[in-house]
Amino acid sequence: MELTWYGHATWGVEVGDTSLLIDPFFDNPKTDTDPEELNPDYVLVTHGHADHIADSDRFRGAHFVSTPEIISYLTDEYGVEDGTGMNLGGTFEAGDAFVTMVRADHSNGIDTDYGATGGMPAGFVISDTKPTQVADEDSTTFYHAGDTSLHSEMKDVIAPYLEPDAAAVPAGDHFTMGPWQAAVAVDWLDVDHAFPMHYDSFPPIEIDTDDFVKEVKATGSDAEVHVLDGDETFPL
């Protein structure tokens, strides 16, 4: 599995021969990538805010996965041609990947005159094996927390049952967790690798990422923190 951070909450995930893109928003200061250069098989959308769906129309030919409300909206307003609506707790087989939709605590209004909500906001756990109650030491699993506050399901459900090896957690504060809550999330998730995201894109969420590194260390977590440059790829 390979992870590429395109800034903000936008990630590329390669699982076998399958490419996934999460929350397409390339108008952020961390990326120089032209979205026209990417050709994902699947696009996963955590919620309907503009800074997570803005470039969806660049990937109309991909298969979109999100809540039914967001799939309907993207079909009507962004010209998305193919999509699957799902909900919290479900797992969707996306080529070589298994995508499980999990809880995120956030708002989910669609920021247009459409006048709708996107259903429940979500995070995604992406694995190269189907999740079961039986631990699989050979599986590789990445958790994209979406826009969220700290919540106990990270510790009670995601960590023990979905067993992520790595997690990308929002750390920009104001609209999501800040560094200290994001660090607690990393500790609860018991991951080997942690990545901050959703920061520095605009003034209210500008942070010093050293604070996140220090906070993770203060929890006693053994996770290795990776503060990626925009467009940087990490092999998991």
Automatic annotation (TrEMBL):
SMART domains: Lactamase_B
Domain Metallo-beta-lactamase intervals: 7-198
Keyword terms: Hydrolase
Any single Pfam family the record assigns to this protein: Lactamase_B_3
Protein name (Swiss-Prot/TrEMBL): UPF0173 metal-dependent hydrolase GCM10009019_23940
Entry superkingdom: Archaea
Lineage: Archaea, Methanobacteriati, Methanobacteriota, Stenosarchaea group, Halobacteria
Organism: Salarchaeum japonicum
Similarity comment: family membership: Belongs to the UPF0173 family.
NCBIfam families for this protein: PRK00685.1
Molecular-function GO term, any one: hydrolase activity
